[in-house]
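Q: Give me the 3D complex with NAP.
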Amino acid sequence: MAQILDGVRVRDAILDECRPRVAALRRPPGLAVVLVGHNPASEIYVRNKVKACADLGIYSETLTPPDSISTAELLAMIGELNRRPEIDGILVQMPLPQQVDSKHALLAVSPEKDVDGFHPCNVGALATGRPGPRSCTPAGIIRMLRYYQLPMAGRHAVVVGRSDIVGKPMALLLLHENATVTICHSKTRDLAGVCRQGDLLVAALGRPAALTADFIRPGATVVDVGINRITDRQEAARIFRNSPDALASFDRKGSVLVGDVHPIDAAASASAYTPVPGGVGPLTIAMLMVNTVESAERRLLV
Ligand code: NAP
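A: Here is the predicted complex, encoded as structure tokens.
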């Protein structure tokens, strides 16, 4: 039986570590979230982030400019947050409307308040092994692997996906843990063959259940970053071919969340794997809280 890597358990452990650190500060850490327009998925993410702050005693503030905001107006709003002393972290929720220059907006966040770890200064700090906020999802994955005492040093880690927020920082963090790292993307030849070399397989490609049994080395550790909502019954039937219970649940709800790794194949081939939902998902907000607390510590405990 493969071991299930429970993200909720790891999240709770991470948040429990934050509580005394928050209590030790002379004022609550402050997080400002900029949520532009009315993207329903973004609204849910932001609500969960605000809830996590409230639970930990972190002050949070959500700014909700309209969809029509210009790049200049957003830059002015970020500039104001950069200047406010009680704000330790600034998060600009993506995606932004088309007329806004997203790269410019992310560059405008002061590197010392960049709790997403997206600013080029902090990406440089990651690449060169200097301290600084790390991208939340990959940093949470490292915490999870440590929590379950799954070795990284000397292992061959295959990361599928090279996005700036998941794939690239994941590969760099694994490299700093002394793994031997291969990064795959949409132009990789023989993706299944390369993935099968991985003692540790990290899937972050955004393709529902795309990595099937022939991509998984028997006994590998499989980390599934993907979050994909399936609404097509044929697709659900392909994925849950041997699981009438899962298919019945799809029929009741009309949709199901799946990762980038085939869930049944992961359970059958891996020695340990993250389920979707309940694996990597809960770690991202927990690491946002860690980055906010660390930013407040750097600013207050000097
Ligand atoms: P992204 O920006 O769309 O990047 C996807 C990457 O996968 C790209 O590098 C792309 O290659 C590669 N790719 C796409 N199709 C491929 C294929 N058929 N074979 C090999 N590589 C392929 O996605 P992302 O933001 O990194 O997110 C990836 C997944 O993680 C999504 O499902 C997203 O919802 C999920 N996610 C989850 C969390 C969480 O908290 N759990 C956080 C962030 C993201 P190219 O570069 O060549 O195009």
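A quick observation: The longest helix spans residues 281-300.
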